[in-house]
Amino acid sequence: MKSYIEPEFIVERDQDKCIQCKVCVNQCTYETHYYDPEDDKVYSHDEKCVNCHRCVVFCPTGAITIKRNPTQYKENSNWTREAIAAVKNQAETGGIILTGMGCDKPYYTYWDRILLNASQVTNPSIDPLREPMELRTYLGAKPDKLEFDLESGNMVLRTRLAPQLCVETPILFTALSYGAVSLNVHEALARAATEYGTFMNTGEGGLDKKLYKYGDHIIVQVASGRFGVSPDYLNTGAAIEIKIGQGAKPGIGGHLPGEKVTEDISRTRMIPIGTDALSPAPQHDIYSIEDLRQLIYALKEETDYTKPVSVKIAAVHNSAAIASGMVRAGADIIALDGVRGATGAAPRIIRDNVGIPIEVALASVDQRLREEGIRNKASIIVAGGIKNSADVVKAIALGTDAVYIGTAALVAVGCTVCQTCYTGKCPWGIATSDPWISKRVNPDIATRRLVNLLQGWSHEIKEMMGGMGINAIESLRGNRLQLRGVGLTDTELKILGIKMAGD
Amino acid sequence: MKTITALNNPYSEDKVIDACGLFGMMDLTGRRFGSKEPVKAISNMHERGNGLGGGFAIYGLYPEHKDDYAFHIMYLNKESKKKTDKLLAQNFDVPQTEEMPVNPAANVWNPPVIWRYFLQPKKNRAKNQSPDEYVVQNVMRINMETGGAFVFSSGKNMGVFKGVGFPEDIAEYFCLNEYEGYLWVCHGRFPTNTPGWWGGAHPFNILDWTVVHNGELSSYGINRRYLEMYGYTCTMQTDTEVMAYALDMLMRKQKLPMEVVARILAPPLWIEVDNMEPEEKHLCTTLRQCYSSLLMNGPFTIIATHNGEMIGLTDRIKLRPLTAGIKGSMLYLSSEESAIHMVSKNLDSVWSPRGGEPVIGRLRSMKPIEVSPKVRK
Q1: How far from B177 is each of A36, B113, B174, B286, CA to CA, in Å?
Q2: Per-residue model confidence as pLDDT tens digits over B82-103
Q3: At the N or C end, where does chain B have fewer CB atoms within 10 A?
Q4: For residue A228, what are the domain limits?
């Protein structure tokens, strides 16, 4: 059947600059570029281009420009190119349209409509280059109070806290499963987390044995497919996360196609080579909140109560009530993933239409837990849509303890958010299990880039805190008076628990 | 509640912002003394206030009524007094009550009617409720339900005198030269966003706990939300109020000593904690993990007092001043050193406590305690 879909992008090659070196031909895993020996020229199949910029960055003479196809359908606010192409695609295939990364629509982002405060006159701002500025954060359950014994005149602390995770900056690497991303990416995340004093999350695909040595800075995930879950695995991590849902695809499972299940991935995931790795939509031993409690305590038993257990859910309409139940079920950490959260592969229709923005979910969960007097019983980590350090500061002021970053970490490594991770052919060597393409990520360089990102954001967070006259991150956490909204309705302000700018 | 919140924060801002001068002096032997020196000292720091608030707390004030709760209550209208008197008569035995003696010639602004009561909680209260809890509950009710009454102080053998004016004028108005106590705390206020109203002046009191405060807490938003989680209602919307409630929760309810509380309100820096001996490191780390939302961030100096104890504390990087001095059995705490020299020549010692290190004076404990982290870089 002839496809009626026109190319989304046009590759323009300046033939005066092109030296026929074929770097683009070799770099493009989608086979967009080809060399014609008769003409001694390089040409492109525009329809194969995903606009990932691999060729643009690596072309030694800067000969390539990628443009949006200037040929557009008649202007229409409803029937956009995306809407028309989607219908044509489904008419030609009869399938679900897949995509990668997070929701790309603009209208769900609240961070950009929230502004931060700074000290003037009545209260000095603090210069982080000259004064201490503390970002250290402990994640885990805290008691209502500490109790002491009086022993021969000395106060002796009797209370023992539940296990805690210590992060030197309130930024963790979110769940990116091995299989969805390459081993080199996993290694870089683990090494960067170790170097900077934070954590990487394995995602649901297990952990290669080579990375067990970074276990002190790894959160191991247990998801519905239970891939790679073993006593060794659980005891290797510093914490365990039960994955109930994911912001990019709340309520549905996952599917790693058999062709991606190579020998290494088969060993780590503990499934035969070449078989599809199917994660069921729900965890089939959790159909209710009391079932969650059983799994939480089964994992705590297995690890002798030495590790905090996190429960991750997609931010949905009743997040506040669900989170309250999770805390009462024994979760030490609640991870919330908003509608803009990314994925290696999800149906586009789910990604863009299911779930709620992380800002409102966080605001309502934090407030509810406070109203019920149990906010200290669990820490909160939010994910899904954190794209710079100001988002981190705003999230903490709204009430989270720390944030997970996924897309930002991958962009640091090279990702350009072209949204075709699901093909497994990532030209940047990130979202792939192909051993040849994976080599494009050098773990040493990727580690450096990730550490630099954490450092840059941490410096910026300190500058913003100093401006507010705050020198410890815990004085920012939940301190919504440091926030003001612009362009928000009364209801939005009320749910976010912040005032309008100028008020 | 609306009335008081609206009075105290008429523009409904995030909170009330002010800065101040503080002075405290305590005779560690418990000997009582008059108003001359404390008033002289605080008036020496005239420039630190702007005439929109001054106040005093005096301990050892009513020895003849030392077992009664002494209520100082201000009334904005007759109706609120009627309601308050009814509420008090229902819930307390009232051995004595009188209108506060004042000097109307003093230079103060728009004084309200102020009454003094000595009270004993009725025996028929709920069995598991301590007298202190009972008093707190009634104070909250008077403040919130009577629409114009506000309790200045409610402790035993102590009292708070405060209002709109410079501290020396307030002292004259309340005829403080007729009173004696072993511990005086004085305050001159410089509010920026509230017109003066008498209840908004410092000291801030509940039971015999009193706080005077100079500073602005950048952490107010979270301090307040944390305290609200444990049932406190912040009607005044001031830093002083959250400071007082934090002390009430930690010291009265959870019975933690000041040495520990100081490390919650103004904890040592992590770089210091990391270099401590294991036991101390464990203590400081655990305190900060558990009570991180009570870290008071941003500039503050407080003088917190209750029967038998006076505590001076600044924020951990000391963004507001505090000087301490000793002469014989007298312990002085002051925003400015000059105020101490003004009333006491030839001090035995005078020093500036480091940020986050409390100075604690205890009755009949002749040596003031200065708590400092063992490891300092």
Answers
A1: 105, 20, 9, 47
A2: 999 999 999 999 888 999 999 9
A3: C
A4: 170-500
Sign, CA torsion B26/B29/B30/B36: negative
Residue A85 sits in a domain whose CATH number is 3.30.70.20
Paired residues of A9 in beta bridges = A68
User: Which residues does B contribute to its contact with A (CB < 8 Å)?
Assistant: 14-15, 17, 19, 192, 216, 218-222, 225-226, 228-230, 254, 256-257, 259-260, 267, 269-271, 282-283, 286-293, 295, 297-299, 316-317, 319
- What is the number of other CB atoms lying within 10 angstroms of the CB of residue B90? 9
In angstroms, the separation between the Cα of residue B362 and the nearest Cα of chain A is 16
Q: Which residues in chain A touch residue B319, judged by CB atoms under 8 angstroms apart?
A: 124
pLDDT (tens digit, 9 = 90+) per residue, A421-452? 999 999 999 999 999 999 999 999 999 999 99
Beta bridge partners of A134: A472
Q: Do A74 and A198 sit in the same domain of this protein?
A: no
Q: What is the pLDDT of residues A15-24, one digit of tens each?
A: 999 999 999 9
In tens, the pLDDT along A51-78 reads 999 999 999 999 999 999 999 999 999 9
Q: How far is B237 from chain A (nearest CA, A)?
A: 12
In a domain, A290, yes or no: yes
- Which of the listed residues A78, A95, A112 is the one where a domain comes to its end? A95
Residue A257 lies in a domain: yes
Query: Does residue A479 lie within any of the structural domains?
Result: yes
Name the minimum distance, in Å, from the CA of B360 to any CA of chain A: 17
Distance CA A404, CA A419 (A): 20
Spatial separation of the C-alpha atoms in residues B377 and B372, rounded to whole Å: 12
Complex-level ipTM: 0.90
Chain A residues with CB-CB distance to B256 below 8 A: 146, 148
* pLDDT confidence band for B374 (50 / 70 / 90): very low
Structural domain contains residue A1: no
Q: Residue A208: give its domain's CATH number.
A: 3.20.20.70
Higher-pLDDT residue of A495 and B213 is A495
CA angle B221, B226, B227 (to 5 degrees): 100
For residue A251, the model assigns a pLDDT of 93
Nearest by CB to residue B290, choosing from A146, A469, A476, is A146
- Counting the structural domains of chain A, the total is 2
- A210 in the same domain as A72: no
Kindly list the structural domains of chain B, giving each domain's residue range(s) and its CATH number in brackets, ordered by start: 17-214+298-370 (3.60.20.10)
